[in-house]
Design a protein that fits this description.
heterodimer, A: 285 residues, mainly alpha, MetI-like fold, 0% strand, B: 311 residues, 2 domains, two-stranded antiparallel sheet, 12 helices, 2 strands
Chain lengths: 285, 311
């Protein structure tokens, strides 16, 4: 018997408290980005004006053009590097993880539980733990300043997560569907390709994008395993921009926007899957 | 159990291997790529770190490369900076996680209400968490900037400050400043985890309590909190581990300075490898990190297992 009126406390909570809370929450999350966006549109004089000038006078995209074409910190090159490293990581991770996820979901071999547990534990591993040994490993293999070093290193954090997620997706697909295909004379691989993959496609797409986005954001491997400007990814490029003799905050803000927008868009799409995966992945095990 | 076509009347040629053996072989074959890839990027590097930790191995001093047994571990025991980083890690982890949790819980309760534009607010709330770590670090470095940063400017205009403050280069303020940044970054994580938990609580429970005359606060304490407990425990445990490992933010904002005021164990390990090129000692720190992580993980698994068997 809900009469829709509620007590005084409920009406205050549902009205003024809710709305001021939402305004606060939005401002809390958004204000720093708004400030950097405004910074990226300001001229040098406006940036370093006293007293501080909050809004740009005449909006200029000079910072974006400068960052994109700069000789010292060429963001066009960083962008291309990030795009390549993240794309290859994504495709390779997805292929490896589909096979592994399918095997773990379908074949009941010994040690399956242990393997799953290892995948879960691996997600807790800090990247810094791997820096020294991987650096000396890539050094010995002559892979410093190559895309391979970055892509292989990225596997260490993308693969455990995607395998873990895909096991869950494959588990949720009824076995009967592929078993009829198997009886009809399909091989295991054909059954996986024709029956399971189309059904798991949304989940696979989500995990693939996840691999892309985490590689895109990766910083520590990117700065440790590359030394040349033209091999830097966006994250590494941003950091090296700070290392210059004087920080160009206008250009840097433009660079920040360039690095942020693609992941923000992809994540908006991912949201639904991500929440499901996070709570499922975290609760199992 | 797979439905086996054993009773099919047609005579089949007897295969070389039994069906089960072939299935197992296929299974292991499918696991081969993942084994190679994680073997090469996780297992082998970890073994290598253990090996490296027994050597004096500084990249720029190759003539001093030699086996020193547990020498690096002895050095660690007497390294005051290492013990300082453990303490700093505690401050960093608990400072960050407690406020992330409180902020995230408040945000989740807000986002659970129905209002117009909810999808928009929810996406916006996620932003701090989804952008690259280096972006968060640089954005906040700019906000904290002593002369042109907006934080000083606003506080001066409000009259809460009389002088400009160098947030990141003042030893007393640097840790609170990086923790605040990490809180901003981590609130969305708790918000979406707890929101998922809130949405799983059946509305009927609240309706029934309302009929029985329970107030808002009573419903919160007796329905919301107890039912959220499992997800709170899991999210907090995960977050503690992640935060302990998380080096990017501090590395970019302060590099552990000023005077190691913000140096946590993971940034210290990173600097030993990245700046000092002291691979032997960095590997030793990695092994210690690994042991700490394993303890955390065992604890985590116990806690989550406990929850699963309880529910």
């Amino acid at each position: 018997m809900s009469d829709g009126r509620g007590s005084l406390a409920e009406r205050v909570l549902g009205g003024p408290v809710l709305w001021s809370g939402l305004v606060l929450l939005t401002a809390f999350a958004l204000a720093p980005f708004v400030w950097v966006f405004l910074t990226s549109l300001k001229t040098r004089a406006e940036l370093y004006a006293t007293p501080l000038q909050y809004l740009p006078g005449a909006i200029t995209v000079a910072n974006y053009v400068d960052a994109w074409t700069s000789k010292l910190t060429p963001f066009s090159r960083f962008f291309a590097n990030s795009l390549w490293v993240s794309s290859v990581t994504m495709v390779a991770t997805t292929a490896i993880s589909i096979l592994a996820g399918y095997a773990l979901a379908r074949f009941r071999f010994g040690g399956r539980q242990v393997i799953l547990l290892v995948f879960l534990a691996t997600q807790m591993f800090p990247a810094v733990l791997l820096i020294a040994p991987l650096l000396s490993q890539w050094y010995a293999l002559g892979l410093i300043d190559t895309y391979q070093a970055l892509i292989y290193s990225n596997f260490s954090f993308t693969v455990p997560f995607t395998v873990w997620m895909l096991v869950g997706y494959f588990d949720s697909i009824p076995r009967e569907l592929e078993e009829s295909a198997l009886i009809d004379g399909c091989g295991r691989f054909a059954a996986l390709l024709r029956v399971v993959l189309p059904l798991a496609a949304p989940g696979i797409a989500a995990t693939a994008i996840f691999a892309f986005v985490t590689s895109w954001s990766e910083l520590l491997f990117a700065i440790t395993f590359t030394t040349q400007t033209e091999m830097r990814t966006l994250s590494a490029g941003l950091l090296f921009m700070v290392g210059q003799y004087e920080i160009q905050w206008g250009q840097l803000s433009a660079g920040v926007m360039i690095s942020t927008v693609p992941v923000a868009i992809l994540f908006t799409y991912l949201q639904r899957h991500l929440i499901r995966g996070l709570s499922a992945g975290a609760l199992k095990g | 159990m797979a439905s086996s076509p054993a009773s099919v009347a047609v005579e089949l040629p007897r295969p070389l291997l039994s069906r089960r053996a072939r299935e197992l072989a296929t299974g292991y074959l499918y696991l081969l790529p993942v084994a190679i890839c994680l073997g090469g990027t996780i297992v082998f590097p970890i073994l290598k770190a253990m090996h490296m930790s027994l050597y004096n191995h500084v990249l720029i001093k190759p003539q001093e490369y030699r086996f020193i047994g547990l020498g690096n571990y002895l050095r660690l025991l007497h390294d005051e900076t290492f013990w300082l980083t453990l303490w700093n890690s505690m401050v960093w982890v608990f400072g960050s996680v407690i406020f992330q949790f409180l902020g995230g819980f408040a945000a989740a309760l807000l986002l659970h209400q129905s209002f117009r534009g909810r999808a928009f607010v929810r996406t916006v709330t996620l932003l701090p968490w989804i952008v690259p770590g280096v972006v968060v670090a640089l954005v906040w470095e700019w906000l904290y900037q002593p002369n042109y940063g907006v934080i000083n400017d606003v506080l001066l205009r409000l009259g809460w400050l009389t002088d400009r403050v160098a947030w990141l280069s003042n030893p007393a303020l640097a840790m609170p400043a990086v923790v605040a940044t990490n809180v901003w970054r981590g609130v969305p994580f708790f918000a979406i985890m707890l929101l998922a938990g809130l949405q799983a609580i059946p509305d009927e429970l609240y309706e029934a309590a309302r009929v029985d005359g329970a107030s808002v606060t009573e419903r919160f304490w007796h329905i919301t909190l107890p039912l959220l407990r499992p997800i709170i425990v899991v999210a907090t445990a995960t977050r503690i581990i992640w935060t302990f490992n998380y080096a990017d933010l501090i590395f970019v904002m302060t590099s552990g300075g000023p005077a190691n005021a913000t140096q946590i164990t993971s940034t210290y390990t990173l600097l030993m490898a990245y700046s000092n090129l002291d691979f032997g000692y960095a590997a030793t720190l990695s092994v210690v990190l690994l042991v700490i992580m394993m303890l955390f993980t065992v604890l985590y698994l116990r806690v989550t297992r406990g929850i699963e068997s309880a529910t």
